[in-house]
Amino acid sequence: MIRRLAPTEWELLRDVRLASLTDAPTAFASTHAREAAFDEATWRERLAGNAWYVGTDPGSGPELVTGIVAGRHDPSSPPDQRHLIAMWVAPSARGTGLAVDLVEAVARWARADGATELTLGVTAGNDRASGLYLKCGFVATGETFLLDNDPSRPYHLFSRSLDPATS
């Protein structure tokens, strides 16, 4: 099941985000040490500033979060562009289709928010993620950028049209 995090769920966001940074430290533009130092106000701000979605395993008794993703509107980007960020699926849920469902949740949010384009970055060498995004209709733009936390590993930019005729 996919659901959007409520404004009060900053602790859940923190816990799952830190788990993702521990599991896949080279996949993100941040580090566990950096985000572990965030205070409650920072987590609440991050939750309020982005559209965070989680994937859960409904048959697991207490809610077990098995994936997370966010949609972001960057004011410095074109007004019709949104960004998919912070994508992670727990090892136990990989290959189940959860990742596609999380991507589509962000695409629906972006369309509803007025976007016609969704972009994301993938760390060089993360072939599994690149394959997922290609499967979800993204195309590699050929653009790359470097990350502050590891300038030796470029991020490759991907883009997807949200025009109903082409997506």
Query: Which assembly state applies to the chains in this document?
Result: single chain
Query: Low-confidence runs (pLDDT<50, min 5 residues)?
Result: none
| Secondary-structure arrangement, i.e. CATH architecture of one domain | 3-Layer(aba) Sandwich
What's the helix count?
A: 5
Strand content: 25-35%
Averaged pLDDT: 93
Distance between the termini: 23 Å
CATH class of one domain: Alpha Beta
Spell the H/E element sequence: EHHHEEEHEHEE
Tell me what you see in this structure.
- With 167 residues, the protein is of the alpha+beta class.
- It has a domain at 2-114: Aminopeptidase (3-Layer(aba) Sandwich), CATH 3.40.630.30.
- The chain is 32% helix and 29% strand.
- It is built from 5 helices and 7 strands.
- The chain has helices at 10-23, 32-36, 40-49, 98-112, 127-135; strands at residues 2-4, 51-57, 64-72, 81-89, 117-123, 139-145, 155-161.
- Strands 1-2-3-4-5-7-6 form a 7-stranded mixed sheet, with helices on both faces.
- β2 (51-57) and β3 (64-72) form a beta hairpin.
- α1 (10-23) packs across α3 (40-49).
- The longest helix is centred in the middle third of the chain and has 15 residues, at 98-112.
- The radius of gyration is 15 Å and the shape is globular.
- The two termini are 23 Å apart.
- The model has no long low-confidence stretch (mean pLDDT 93).
What is this structure, in a nutshell?
This protein is of the alpha+beta class.
Annotate the secondary structure layout.
Blueprint: E1 2-4, H1 10-23, H2 32-36, H3 40-49, E2 51-57, E3 64-72, E4 81-89, H4 98-112, E5 117-123, H5 127-135, E6 139-145, E7 155-161
Parallel strand pairs: 4-5
Antiparallel strand pairs: 1-2, 2-3, 3-4, 5-7, 6-7
